[in-house]
Every structure is written in structure tokens, then in C-alpha cells.
Write a sequence for this structure.
């Protein structure tokens, strides 16, 4: 178990290395630089700045400097927010983003599983078609469409919820809903398919032949096999919620990492974008590792 | 009579999505009676409806299946009852053993849990975890599982196929049922293990006097275990009789062909005898006797009329027009 854990951590290093490399060269491919603005900076100052940040060195040399710093755990200073390091900005935004993300995952799991179970138990009935139809709609509407619609309805027309800001529970409602809607739909569809498949298993027939009531068959015999595929959803879900939060935090004006990511990219704040990319990569790798550990815990046949 | 089945029919609605819905008749009017302590074998090829017959009376048909007719077990109606009333009988009065022990046990739950839960649901308020554990371990010992205390805490994948089938048998026996339905209990097992399982069933029958219905396609297997043999073909009973009557005085051409098609009965050339042709397509059954297209003694009327059941001896019945075979 421990050696498996160590192996997985070790194998994530090359992955992170590839992420860093690709992200580094991609952001540099974008035209412009961190110190370009509408009001041109005097040439001497620009030269000084570029010297300080090694921006006038050849790209491979800059890449080398960056890698060395990352190895030391230093993501460098932000090019735009001069008083902050990238690590400080991430540390500031992280509590906001993690609250949003965790709430969205929790909400998706609870409502998605509930809807999926209802649909599976009433397979091919009107309720089933209704739930699956709604789920399909949920998957197809992108979050940058859903967010303005909800803002319009709950914020502007009915005045029930704030449309931006952070600090109170009411500020989280709309962003969390926008983040979780497509995930609720995904989870509901997966739960339905998985439960229907599980209920056709021979061991469910054995449980019926033993005289077990449906309630016990569902909770004791069908639950684990049904939940396993949903567990593997947690990996991609983390990725989806991260990309979703980039949009959602910008639309709702939330001070999370996602907004730093967008602003960093627009400002060519190279270090900030890189820092966020590496951090996101690390989160997704960590989540996938967690999923594999949960697998072993749920399924006695899996041993590491 | 403990179990009375009258004119049982089992239909499946087949919806391929392309063609219009069709009705597949898996069991076409089966009547049979079973006394307390009696041991019966249901013999037939795959698709003869022998398993669906008993799935129907246990309420285990898939959603597209429906059962018609009447079945009573100790004066209680079984067919089309609610799960709630069936659950008073399933696992308690009637135990069931399945074909494939590799999939019949839940891979996520320990053997012990899967055993004791039978007592948990059937003993209600009288359920006691400690005594249930003790009885489950005794039962594991009874079906000759070594180190039953250890096995109690094992997961199914830690056991061999034969061991798992013993666990399934222990599960069926825990509530001391009056009837055990064994649906091809040895088909998925190695030949050496098959004999052990049959020996175990025989031993259980001798000591507990539990009735056993053995569903199988293996005629020689039943010879030592059962009193009576019921031969099914295409959803109907074609012949019923004692083991001796079926083995030595078989009347129906299908039974005779089935007996001839055993590995011990090979031609001099070393070729095994097989029944010509294929079992009929259940969606497209021949008119008259379903066996007529494959029958060596087929007459004109076999192709249009269904032969009625005819009495040869007290318990020896055959559905065939041909006499003195």
C-alpha cells in the first residue's frame, strides 16, 4: 500500500514536468509580453524590467531558470501584482475556489445519485424520461450561458440572490449551482446506467431468492457496485469543476484562483499563469490518486 | 401436496427495437406436483424452459417476463404475489442454488454477512448476531468447508468455485427450507468437484429430508440422486417417470435420444451420438409436437396436433402419439 502510494507520487513527477513544459512554451507563443500596455513604458525602464525578470535571455535559458525555481518550490513573483508572489496569490484564492469546488462536487453527488436511483428504479417510465431529459439539457447548456440566465432570473428579475461578491453563504448559491448543474446531469446518467446494470447481476437475484427486501438489496447489495463508476468520475469532475470555476469566478466576480488564471493569461503574467497551471495539474493528479485509494477501500478484490 | 403447479405458462416480451414486439413462450402449460420429502430432476436442453419454470414461481423473472397459471406451496399461492409476501417464503421455506457460483455471491460482501443476513431477514426480532454467526459457521462446516471460522470472514474471490458453491448451498440451507431448487448446480464446476457437490446434496437429502428439485441437462448425474425425472422439451413436459422407468423404459423419442447421447454410449467408431437438428426457435415453434422436426418416428398428425399426455404406468406419463416404443 505505502509502496504503491510512493510509486504513484513518483510517477506524477514526469506528468507535472510535461505540463510545465507545454504550458511554458504555449504562453510564450502568445503575442505581447507582461509589460506591454497602452501607454508605452520608456525603453530604458522596459529594458531594466526585462533584465530583472530574465525576459531578454533566450527562451530555453528562461525555461531552465523557471524549472530550477519550481524545483525549489518557488513560482516566482507575479509580473502584474508587484507586491505579491505567485504562491501568495494562489494561497489567497485557494480557500474561495476550494469551497466552491467542494460544495459543487457534494451537491452533484447528492442530487445526481438521488435522481439516478429514481430513474433506474422507474426504468422507462415517465419519471425516468423526465429526469434523463433534464440531465441531457443540463449537460448541453454551457456554464457561460447558464450563469447569465440564472443571474437574470434570481438576481435581476426576482432580486432573490446577489449576482456578485463573496463572504456570505448567499454569495455561493448561484456559482455553486452553475458549477454543479452539468455534473448533476452526468452523475444522474451514470448512476442510472450503473444501477440498472448492477440490478441485473446474478448476485442480486441470489439476494432476492434469499428473501431480502428491496430496501436491503439496494443499500447492501447494489450500492457499492453502483458507486464505483461514480467514484472514477471524481477525477474528471475535478478537472471539469476547475475549468468551470475559471468561467464562473470571472462572471460572478469571485476572488478565487480561476480569476487569477484568466487575468494572468490576459495580462501575459507568465509566472502567475504557470503557477496556476502547475497547481491545477497537481490537484487533478492528487484527486485521481485519491480515487484509486477509495477504489481499494470499496472493492475488496482490489489490492495495491 | 407440498408444491402444486397447474398449467404454468411463462412468456417473455421480446422487443428488438426493429421488429414489432414478439411474445416468446418459454414455458407452455406445465403441471406438476411435488410431495414433501420427494426428490425430482427436471431434465432438458438449454432453452427448454426448465429454469424459467422455477424462476417464475420464485418471482425471479426479469421485467419482460410474465407468468400465468397457478402455483401453490403448502396452500399458499406463489404466482404474481407481491415481493413482501414472497419474501416470507423465499430463502425460508424454499432455498435456491444457482448455476454459477462465481457470480451468485456478492463480491463486495464477506461470506459471513451474506450467510447471516438470511437469518437476519427471516427471524426478525428473534435475530441474534452471535447465534446467527455460530449457526452460519456450523452450516459452513456442514457443507464441508475447511476452517469455517476463517472462511466466515473471507470474501468470495478468496474461495475456489467448488467452495463458493458450498457457500451458496449453505446459504440455501440456513433456514431449514422444506424445498431446495438447485438450478444446474454443477454445470459451472470441474468434473471432480461436480461429484462432490452431488454427493453433498445427496447427503443433505438423506439427513434433512429436504425435498430437492434438481434442474439439469445431465441425465446420468441425476440417476443416483433423484426419485423421479421430468423431461422437458420446448417449454412442455414430454415424459415423467421414476429413474428406472426413464432409464430403462423411456417412451418418448426425445428421452430415448437424450439417453443415447451420453458420452458412455458411443458408437464403435468413437463418435458420440447426438440428436439431429437444433432445438426449435422459441419465437417460431413448429405446430403440433415441438419435437416433430427432429423425431425419427414422425407421423403426419405430429405436425399438426399436439399429442396429449398418456399414462403408461401409475407415475409414468408420456406425451407422444406413438405407442409401444
Amino acid at each position: 500500500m505505502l509502496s504503491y502510494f510512493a510509486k504513484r507520487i513518483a510517477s506524477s513527477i514526469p506528468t507535472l514536468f510535461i505540463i510545465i513544459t507545454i504550458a511554458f512554451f504555449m504562453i510564450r507563443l502568445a503575442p505581447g509580453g507582461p509589460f506591454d500596455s497602452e501607454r508605452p513604458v520608456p525603453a530604458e525602464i522596459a529594458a531594466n524590467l526585462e533584465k530583472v525578470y530574465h525576459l531578454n535571455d533566450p527562451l530555453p535559458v528562461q525555461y531552465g531558470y523557471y524549472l530550477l525555481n519550481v524545483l525549489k518550490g518557488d513560482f516566482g513573483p507575479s509580473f502584474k501584482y508587484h507586491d505579491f508572489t505567485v504562491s501568495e496569490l494562489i494561497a489567497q484564492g485557494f480557500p474561495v475556489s476550494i469551497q466552491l469546488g467542494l460544495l459543487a462536487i457534494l451537491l452533484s453527488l447528492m442530487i445526481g445519485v438521488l435522481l439516478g436511483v429514481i430513474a433506474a428504479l422507474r426504468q422507462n417510465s415517465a419519471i425516468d424520461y423526465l429526469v434523463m431529459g433534464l440531465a441531457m439539457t443540463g449537460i448541453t447548456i454551457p456554464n457561460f450561458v447558464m450563469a447569465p440566465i440564472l443571474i437574470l432570473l434570481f438576481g435581476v428579475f426576482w432580486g432573490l440572490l446577489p449576482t456578485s461578491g463573496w463572504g456570505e453563504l448567499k454569495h455561493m448559491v448561484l456559482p455553486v449551482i452553475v458549477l454543479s448543474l452539468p455534473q448533476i446531469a452526468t452523475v444522474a446518467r451514470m448512476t442510472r446506467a450503473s444501477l440498472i446494470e448492477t440490478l441485473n447481476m446474478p448476485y442480486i437475484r441470489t439476494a432476492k431468492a434469499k428473501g431480502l427486501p428491496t430496501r436491503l438489496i439496494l443499500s447492501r447489495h447494489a450500492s457499492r457496485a453502483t458507486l464505483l463508476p461514480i467514484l472514477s468520475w471524481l477525477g474528471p469532475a475535478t478537472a471539469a469543476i476547475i475549468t468551470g470555476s475559471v468561467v464562473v469566478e470571472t462572471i460572478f466576480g469571485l476572488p478565487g484562483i480561476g480569476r487569477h488564471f484568466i487575468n494572468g493569461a490576459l495580462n501575459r503574467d507568465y509566472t502567475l499563469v504557470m503557477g496556476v497551471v502547475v497547481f491545477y495539474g497537481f490537484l487533478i493528479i492528487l484527486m485521481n490518486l485519491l480515487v484509486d485509494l477509495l477504489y481499494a477501500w470499496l472493492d475488496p478484490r482490489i489490492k495495491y | 401436496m407440498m408444491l402444486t403447479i397447474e398449467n404454468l405458462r411463462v412468456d417473455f416480451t421480446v422487443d428488438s427495437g426493429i421488429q414489432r414486439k414478439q411474445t416468446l413462450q418459454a414455458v407452455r402449460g406445465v403441471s406438476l406436483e411435488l410431495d414433501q420429502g420427494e426428490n425430482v430432476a427436471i431434465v432438458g436442453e438449454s432453452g427448454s424452459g426448465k429454469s424459467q419454470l422455477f424462476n417464475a414461481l420464485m418471482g425471479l423473472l426479469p421485467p419482460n417476463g410474465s407468468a400465468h397459471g397457478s402455483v401453490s406451496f403448502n396452500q399458499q399461492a406463489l404466482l404474481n404475489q407481491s415481493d413482501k409476501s414472497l419474501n416470507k417464503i423465499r430463502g425460508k421455506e424454499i432455498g435456491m442454488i444457482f448455476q454459477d457460483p462465481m457470480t451468485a455471491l456478492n463480491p463486495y460482501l464477506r461470506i459471513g454477512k451474506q450467510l447471516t443476513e438470511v437469518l437476519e431477514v427471516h427471524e426478525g426480532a428473534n435475530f441474534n448476531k452471535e447465534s446467527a454467526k455460530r449457526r452460519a459457521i456450523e452450516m459452513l462446516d456442514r457443507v464441508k468447508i475447511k476452517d469455517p471460522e476463517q472462511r466466515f470472514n473471507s470474501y468470495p474471490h478468496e474461495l475456489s468455485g467448488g467452495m463458493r458453491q458450498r457457500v451458496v448451498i449453505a446459504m440455501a440451507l440456513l433456514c431449514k427450507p422444506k424445498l431446495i431448487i438447485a438450478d444446474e448446480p454443477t454445470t459451472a464446476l470441474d468434473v471432480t468437484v461436480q461429484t462432490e457437490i452431488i454427493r453433498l446434496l445427496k447427503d443433505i437429502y438423506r439427513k434433512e429430508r429436504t425435498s430437492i428439485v434438481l434442474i439439469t441437462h445431465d441425465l446420468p448425474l441425476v440417476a443416483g440422486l433423484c426419485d423421479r425425472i421430468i423431461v422437458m422439451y420446448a417449454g412442455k413436459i414430454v415424459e415423467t417417470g421414476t429413474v428406472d422407468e426413464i432409464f430403462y423404459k423411456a417412451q418418448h423419442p426425445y428421452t430415448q435420444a437424450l439417453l443415447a447421447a451420453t458420452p458412455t454410449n458411443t458408437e464403435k467408431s468413437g463418435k458420440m451420438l447426438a440428436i439431429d437438428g437444433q432445438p426449435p426457435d422459441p419465437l417460431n415453434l413448429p405446430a403440433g409436437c415441438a419435437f416433430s422436426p427432429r423425431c425419427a418416428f414422425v407421423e403426419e398428425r405430429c405436425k399438426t396436433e399436439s399429442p396429449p399426455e398418456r399414462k403408461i404406468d401409475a407415475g409414468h406419463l408420456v406425451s407422444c402419439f406413438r405407442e409401444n416404443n
Summary: Residues 193 and 279 of chain B are 29 Å apart (CA to CA). The interface with chain A takes residues 58-60, 62-63, 83-84, 86-92, 95-96, 98, 100, 103-109, 117-118, 121-122, 155, 157, 168, 171 of chain B (CB under 8 Å). The mean pLDDT of chain B is 88. Residues 3-226 of chain B form a domain with the Rossmann fold fold (CATH 3.40.50.300).
